[in-house]
Design a protein that fits this description.
Elements lengths: L2 E7 L2 E6 L6 H12 L4 E7 L4 E6 L3 H10 L17 H24 L2 H24 L5 H14 L3 H33 L5 E6 L2 E6 L8 E4 L8 E12 L1 H4 L5 E3 L4 E2 L4 E13 L3 H13 L6 H28 L2 H9 L3 H21 L2 E3 L2 H9 L2 E5 H5 L5 E7 L5 H12 L5 H12 L12 E3 L3 E6 L2 E6 L1 H7 L9 H5 L6 E7 L2 E9 L6 H10 L4 E5 L4 H11 L3 E3 L4 H13 L4 E5 L5 H6 L2 E5 L4 H6 L2 E3 L5 H36 L5 H19 L7
Parallel strand pairs: 13-20, 13-22, 20-21, 22-23, 23-24
Antiparallel strand pairs: 1-2, 2-4, 3-4, 5-6, 5-7, 7-11, 8-9, 8-10, 8-11, 12-24, 14-19, 15-16, 16-17, 17-18, 18-19
Helix pairs in contact: 3-6, 4-5, 4-6, 5-6, 6-8, 6-11, 6-24, 9-10, 9-11, 10-23, 10-24, 11-23, 11-24, 12-23, 14-15, 23-24
Length: about 700
């Protein structure tokens, strides 16, 4: 690609790309491609000017080389993962806003008065039609109020007033639609498919490949706990599939041979091999947008309350206007009440507040799937943490492999990695990574693997039954034994590590010692949550009592429960809810899914199991836990903003009504002030909440 360097400082370079016209799709491909490069921290693309700014670390030459070698054909395979970036949406709505403002003032300056009157009358017909439509359905809605206000202004010959009302209503509609669509787009994109790898079944072998390399009609294997990466037809196996992301229904659906599965749904139990029928991510994005727009999940109680209150106030506004006319016999004073209604501001301000809060949360790497979860977060007093991958670091590491039989440490690690690579858990990832660092090849050595949630994995290698998992699973559930000559060695295991136990033919073969250090920010996060309204902080873990007690003490946890099963976590959450508490659950594994689903607000770590992310109401980045504090602060600030909106709307509009009735201001002025205040409140609601 040809380019010219326009400006650069250390770590940042701005270039102009030599192409006559850049489409929105090309801009998205550029941004996605360069953002994914190892040396690039962030990329910004400006499609209007065909410029790009790259923030990088390391060697400047690598960035320039990537620019020189880039072609749009090279980036074609990334198309399925772009979806709709919102770039076109922003540009189109901004142009609408500018055009509306320019057109209004051009009309006022150059259009003769008779033509202005005719144009205003023509435009008013649309509002009248909406008003009559509401009356025909026997519903007194805000549209009726708008129609009456515009109609009375037209009847009295106050065409400028009618034009001003319609102009401000139009601006408000554009801003509401823009904010709503942008928030929905951001939300849908963050919920869209984000799977990088898939198990390709080819010539009887399972090969882990990039999803970008999967072609139509390829066969892909999906096991329990994993997201289905493509639309396709099931060719073998059977599974219970959670389709909540598309249908909103939490109950899993059974899928078997000849059944159809959709990208983004999750295998809760079983495993299936599917034949890929669609590789584009766009269809999933569009489905999610439709689901969000149709779902009541997006609305908080405050939004619903404001919407219903707005419609309920319409009859009182009409009655107030009629009463003012009967008492004063002054049409202008009656018009004041018609032009200064509470409904418009209530209906506009609340949804914008909530959707803007969702968008602000996304800037902090927080994905919120609906306004009601922000409301629940603000009301929450109890938070339940899983330990592994949540309070501890998302990437534990293998520190030592201790063999308890004839096999070497490397051989035991190879077997463990071969089993663990199929399942999404931080401990499993640690084992696979350790084998990779030692260059231990672990092709499919085993038969079909079986995963028992919160316990471990079983399979057969060379006809011998192999199991790997927790102490409870290996020794109590499976009845494995320790060879007598190794008892002393077993007793000497260091308590500072988390242990994975590998047994072959019911005899302990190795112990994998995993270091799972506590997150540095955990203590501070717990304290900040308490300072922001959380009264009870609980930890629940499958680890031993000794490990749980040590972690709870280090991070300042109020109460903890050790050696718990997934159903225990969910039961605790349900009991807390029955006690009248609003409960947050945060976790990252398959075993956390029941509790995440049961909680008032389930929060999943983005680096955790895909099923946990799919079921959760909120997803946060794996980098640190401060996002939870940010989410709590945003939620608290949102409630303050909503209360402020109520006070401001009631206060301003009540004052305008009294000023109009007392004759201090004319109805045209009150209409202008009312619509301007509504617009200003809405603009303020689009601003970030933090700090509040």
């Amino acid at each position: 690609m040809e380019f010219r360097i326009q400006h650069e400082i250390k770590g940042r370079i701005r270039v102009h790309l030599f192409q006559r016209y850049m489409t929105y799709e090309q801009a998205d491909l550029l941004q996605y491609y360069f953002s994914s490069l190892k040396d690039v921290v962030k990329a910004k693309v400006y499609e209007r000017t065909a410029d790009m700014t790259l923030y990088y670390v390391g060697d400047r030459g690598n960035v320039l080389k990537a620019l020189q070698q880039f072609t749009y054909e090279k980036a074609e395979k990334y198309k399925p993962f772009i979806g709709d970036s919102g770039r076109q949406l922003n540009a189109e709505n901004f142009e609408k806003l500018v055009q509306k403002v320019v057109f209004r003032y051009v009309k006022k300056l150059f259009l003769p008065q008779p033509f202005m009157i005719a144009f205003t009358g023509y435009r008013s017909l649309g509002y009248m039609k909406k008003g009559f439509h509401g009356l025909r359905k026997r519903r007194l809605e805000v549209s009726v109020l708008d129609a009456v206000a515009i109609g009375v202004s037209m009847a009295r010959g106050e065409f400028n007033t009618a034009g001003s009302i319609m102009f401000l209503l139009g601006i408000g509609e554009i801003m509401e639609e823009w904010t709503h669509k942008k928030s929905v787009s951001d939300l849908a994109r963050s919920m869209s498919l984000n799977t990088n790898k898939a198990w390709l079944v080819k010539d009887g072998q399972e090969i882990l490949v990039d999803t970008a390399d999967i072609q139509l009609n390829d066969r892909v294997l999906v096991r329990m706990g994993n997201i289905i990466p493509f639309d396709g037809t099931v060719v073998s196996g059977e599974a219970l599939v959670n389709q909540a992301s598309l249908t909103g229904e939490a109950l899993p659906v059974k899928k078997e041979a000849d059944g159809y599965v959709y990208a983004g749904t999750v295998v809760e139990e079983g495993e299936i091999t599917l034949q890929v029928k669609a590789v584009s991510g766009a269809t999933r994005y569009e489905k999610i947008v439709r689901m969000i727009e149709d779902s009541e999940k997006l609305k908080s109680k405050a939004e619903s309350k404001a919407e219903h209150l707005a419609d309920r106030l319409v009859p009182y506004t009409l009655l107030g206007a009629a009463a003012a006319w009967l008492v004063t016999r002054n049409v202008a004073k009656a018009m004041t009440i018609l032009m200064v209604d509470f409904s418009c501001a209530l209906k506009l301000a609340m949804p914008i507040s909530v959707l803007s809060a969702i968008r602000e949360a996304s800037h902090h790497n927080i994905t919120v799937k609906g306004g009601k979860y922000l409301e629940a977060m603000a009301e929450a007093t109890t938070i339940v943490f899983d330990k592994t991958g949540t309070l501890t670091k998302a990437k534990p590491t293998v520190k030592e492999v201790i063999p308890f039989g004839e096999g070497t440490a490397d051989e035991m690690l190879r077997i463990a990695a071969c089993l663990e690579e199929h399942f999404p858990h931080s401990m499993a990832k640690a084992v696979v990574q350790a084998a990779k660092e030692k260059n231990l090849e672990h092709e499919e050595m085993h038969t079909k693997v079986e995963y028992i949630v919160a316990h471990g994995i079983t399979s057969f290698i060379d006809g011998k039954r192999v199991i790997i998992g927790s102490h409870h699973f290996v020794f109590e559930d499976e009845g494995s034994k320790i060879a007598p000559q190794h008892i002393e060695k077993y007793d000497a295991l260091s308590p500072e590590f988390t242990h994975l136990f590998l047994a072959i033919e019911s005899t302990l073969a190795a112990v994998i010692c995993i270091e799972d250090p506590i997150r540095e920010e955990a203590w501070d996060v717990v304290q900040q949550l308490k300072n922001n309204g959380i009264h009870s902080v609980v930890m629940m873990t499958g680890d031993s009592e000794r490990t749980a007690a040590a972690v709870a003490k280090k991070v300042g946890i109020d109460q903890y429960y050790s050696e718990v099963l997934p159903e225990d976590k969910a039961r605790f959450v349900e009991e807390e809810k029955k006690a009248g508490k609003t409960v947050i659950m945060i976790g990252d594994g398959i075993n956390d899914s029941p509790a995440l689903s049961a909680a008032d607000i389930g929060i999943a770590i983005s680096d955790g199991a895909e099923i946990a992310r799919e079921i959760a109401d909120v997803t946060i980045a794996a980098d640190n836990l401060y996002e939870i504090v940010k989410l709590k602060q945003i939620s608290n600030c949102l409630q303050k903003r909503i209360q402020y909106n109520y006070r401001a709307i009631v206060g301003i509009n009540t004052a305008l009504i009294f000023l109009g009735l007392s004759g201090c201001i004319q109805s045209t002025t009150s209409a202008l002030l009312h619509n301007t205040s509504t617009l200003l409140i809405s603009v303020k609601d689009m601003q970030n909440l933090l700090p509040c």
